[in-house]
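Regression test attached.
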Amino acid sequence: MSTTTKPVNQKAWFLILPMLLCVAFSAILPLMVVVNYSVQDIISPERRVFVGTEWFAAIMRDEELHGALLRQITYSFAVLAVELPLGILLALSMPAKGWKSSAALVIVSLSLLIPWNVVGTIWQIFGRTDIGLMGAALQGMGIEYSYTGNALHAWLTVLLMDVWHWTPLVALLGYAGLRSIPDAYYQAASIDGASKLDVFWYVQLPKMRGVLMIAVLLRFMDSFMIYTEPFVLTGGGPGNSTTFLSQFLTQKAVGQFDLGPAAAFSLIYFLIILLMCFVLYNWMQRVGTQAKEAGHE
Amino acid sequence: MARIELDLAHAYRPNPQQDSDYALLPLKMTFEDGGAYALLGPSGCGKTTLLNIMSGLVMPSQGGVKFDGQAVTQRSPQQRNIAQVFQFPVIYDTMTVAENLAFPLRNRKWPADQIKQRVGVIAEMLEMSGQLNQRASNLAADAKQKISLGRGLVRPDVSAVLFDEPLTVIDPHLKWQLRRKLKQIHHELKLTLIYVTHDQVEALTFAEQVVVMTRGRAVQVGSAADLFERPSHTFVGHFIGSPGMNFLAGRSNGSAFETAGATLPLAAGAELPSGDYKLGVRPEYVSLATANAPGALPMEVRQVQDVGTHVILSAVREGVLVKARLAPDSTQLQVGDTAWLQVMGSHTCFYKNEEIVA
């Protein structure tokens, strides 16, 4: 073993100072304001009381929050469960080259260009039973469809809206992943006698892993923070059946002006998203990499 | 295993009009069962196209392919029972080394115990037995390529194994080993192996028969010795050997060959009708001659290169360059000296329209 030691120079830390400043102004300082609110009861600008973790304790016991959190988790996983397979299927069926592929790309990505609140408005009209195509059609089929009156219908409509809006993102990412697979892989698979399903399972899906991971994280984070579309479409109702976390938070902070509990919850919300992304990312990094079949040991 | 007969032409664009439209000009060729062949040529000469036509990845635009006398032109690689190894390693990321090697057998519904045994044999041959349970995606490029080779060799009943420049990504010293390994495998498994490469050393050491290709044409099929001794096309002369064959343009008057302002009498018994020819002689067969020896040219020495095992002498006369490969220390010649170089001899060939005539 050589005994030479690397020279140590800690001055390099100064180089990250500008970056640290930027992050401080854009993220850490605003976050600290929220932290500040979350540990005080601010009665008026002159009168404030330090309450410690009281808001955190109170918000954690809030029944409404529990309901919203549960709805949120169910919703986000439903979004992933529908959009991911659908997006992959869409990517697989898109033409690979020529003008058809360009046309398909444009058509598929159209819905991504529409602003959130416009999407909400579109679906609000689309689902109306008097003039909306979907609402009227369902009505015509004998289904008592009402996204304003029926909790399940409202929830499904919000889900369908998100699927319509964001599946193309998964499809585009998957398409990019598919196009990056060299032809030799398909040729080799064909020579090895692999079926179409084998090609998908052993070539396409593993090669798409990277982009699909991005798709899952993006879709998870986005759907976990969804606000505008359900707000425009259902306003969180009927009852609170489509009140998700961010709307719950807005009601607390802006509606009821409960800044302390709202700040405490903001922090918890942030930590939940961080935790979920961490777990999802690590799980996906590992899935499929340790799968070993018996018989070849 | 199968005898492969080709009688075809291929163009990637529809309605080919002239030779340059063709990726492969009309050719007729037979690969015998159990032989080791190499397709040798520079990039873009059509050798990979030819290989892909044999494997069934590309459909020839004219003519067809026969395996053991049966037309297989319309059949897929799977139906032809071909194995092919590509230039860059193709492995299945989610599988272990053993699963990768077993994949072609598993898809053909082999019983598990036979698969295991066969995978063991191949892994042993490739010296990968210790890595069978590792995940293939974590291995280095050369190990991955060995897996690709293994997947090509794992089926004992294939019609042929086709290699498309499989050693490109491999380190030189390992290349040497793997090439020997492939040759050894050929002896053990008696498979028909067809090997595409642009490296003449690789082709000549691996194959019993080498097909030299240029611009969509197979210009010569022969053993390493054939290609060296009597290149049937000037391209083969250029391409094989280092340095390549010397060519001297000139004309014959029936009994002597006039070139570079000198007249060289033909060897006794040799016949060459009057006309324009190119004289071809390998640097290995050009020797130093005494002054005014018949069949020797007086030339001005331009360069003397000592490469250790031999000396390469370049000399010029009237714009014609001749290189000679001489034993070390056999010459005291300096740049600017006049050297008499023997270009006429038993190994001298004559070419008309780039094709050999005598």
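Expected vs. actual: identical. The mean pLDDT of chain B is 85.
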